[in-house]
Amino acid sequence: MSIKAEKFVKDPFLIFILLINLCLIAIFFYSHGNISTDIGREALIPQAILNGEVLYKDILNIYGPASYYINAIMYKICGIRLETLYVAGSICSLIFTLFFYSLCEKFCDKGISALLTLLVSTSCLYNSGLYNFIMPYSFAAIYGLTGYLLSAFFTIKYIEDSDKKHLYLSTIIGGFAFACKIEFLFAIIITLFVAIYLKKENIKTLTKALTAFFAFPTLFYMTPVIQGLNINEIKEAFEIFIKSSSVESVKDFAKEIGTIFAVKDIQIWLISLIKTAIYSAIGLILIRFSKNNALKVIALSALTLFVLIIQAETFFTYSCILIAIYLIINFKTLLLENQKLLILLLFSLGGALKTFFNVDTNGYGAYTFPILSIALTCMFLKYISERKKNIDTQTLMVFLIVPIIFSNVIFNLIKLNIYSNKIETQRGTIATEKTWKIGSEKILQTVANKTKENDKVLFLPEGAMFNFLSNRATNMQIYALNMPYIETYGEKKIIEKISDSDIKYIVIIDGLGLYNFHNPEFYFKDNEISRYIQSNYKVLEYEKSDGYKFVFLEKK
Question: Mean pLDDT of all residues in the chain?
Fold first, then answer.
């Protein structure tokens, strides 16, 4: 696939990067900063598929199907355990790392490519947060992003050599990315722009490219249809998707992660720009005027401290805005003189629209920043080379990137120490914060003592991970009842589904890493759902401790 085996032997930078990544995988393999929000879906849906339940019919899902079928296959091969998912995420991260480095090399020298790859590894791929690669909030996001990156890589290869093989590789892998998450549709749009406008390909070639693109979406979307998903159920699933994307809680979340513009974003950009400008200016001055190597080491250490104080992840919030402005101003020049960079910029924006107004690597920006980082580097180096002819750009990038990498490592190790308490079950191990470990083990113990294996248990508002770890089934249409789904379904329909599902036990959980976005307090307040639960279920156990509480209920 255009990356030959001898590349590993001849490129010490790549060997070093992959070794570092393997070490980071080993360090962060079990650790996770949230065990209740979203990730339970990633564990439970592939198991339900293996149990014969049909995606979009029996299983609530508003994302593409590809990642769930891939992980179901992984379960079939390696066993239904959390470790299987960790291995899947780790393999994905290594593939991503390899092609990210290779894409960097098309625009930067090996040293800068290695630095950028380590920056992305420590910023985005490995950490104890919800947005990582080993156990991500969404495997669809990391599989789709990896496919999108590969599509960008092969599109640029196609620009370089006009080899149609690279066009077809780009489109088929772009189709895979789209089958994971529809937001990666921009891959085929950009690639077709190259094929039609830049390469003037004929209809036959374009038809083959489009056929290649639709291969994976057809395979993955037709699978549930073959399994029994009918037209009415497809229509209902589509209506749920449309409605869920427009409810108030999702709009608020979209403003938070940068999909929708919020006035606060302007303040965030200004602060980020000031921080970045100060940091870059210090690095530039040190490189320009200091010839003393010892002084440079001291300065590098000082820069690291500076980054720790001002938070490195906030450097990049304005990335999309900056790239978009640069692209608009320079589009014609790039089209005539630097088509590779033009396509890189288009791919970087196309894959980052979900965080267009706020690229925060502490949040969803961890999945959009990687390609943006290459685009930003190219723009920065171009600016420096045009204005500062005698600057050693590689040394400058060391000064600017190494402190951020070190600060990322320090922050991640601090989080790792916090989220290092292991919950060990027959379904696998996950490490988290001490209080959450205690609360989770108490919940799992209560479920084990008071229920049987064939009993259905509903964990509210979103406790699919507890269904998975306790090996207890639930209704897969209501396994996640956070605010977006409550607003989408409506309380009456949720009550109907609970009533029709033979849910024998309900566990209402608060704490354990649940976000305010999911509003667990909803189930402790007076509303239709809580009144239904009080009327039809009796309390068997109630526990409240520092950091968590739960109510265990049985059907009357």
Answer: 91
Residue 89 Cα distances to 42, 80, 360, 422, 468, angstroms: 11, 15, 21, 19, 18
What predicted TM-score, i.e. pTM, was given to this entire model? 0.94
Structure tokens at 552: 């265990």
Task: Give which of 518, 490, 500 is closest to 240, Cα–Cα.
Answer: 490
What is the tens place of the pLDDT at every residue in 473-496?
999 999 988 888 899 999 999 999
Query: Looking at this protein, which amino acid is placed at residue 310?
Result: I
- In three-state secondary structure terms, 539 is strand
Record the tokens describing residue 207, joined without a space: 């038809």
Tokens of 208: 């083959």
Q: Which residues lie across from 473 on neighbouring strands?
A: 456
Bridge-based pairing state of the strands 457-460 and 505-511 = parallel
DSSP state string for 214-267: HHHHHHHHHHHHHHT--HHHHHHHHHHHHHHTTSHHHHHHHHHHTSS--THHHH
Query: Are 344 and 191 in contact, with CB atoms under 8 Å apart?
Result: no
Sheet holding 505-511, edge to edge: 457-460, 505-511, 548-555, 537-545
Instruction: Say if CB 179 and CB 172 are below 8 A apart.
Output: no
Answer whether the bond into residue 461 is a cis peptide, omega within 30°. yes
Instruction: Identify the CA nearest to 356 among candidates 280, 445, 447, 261.
Output: 261
The pLDDT of residue 288 is above 80 = no
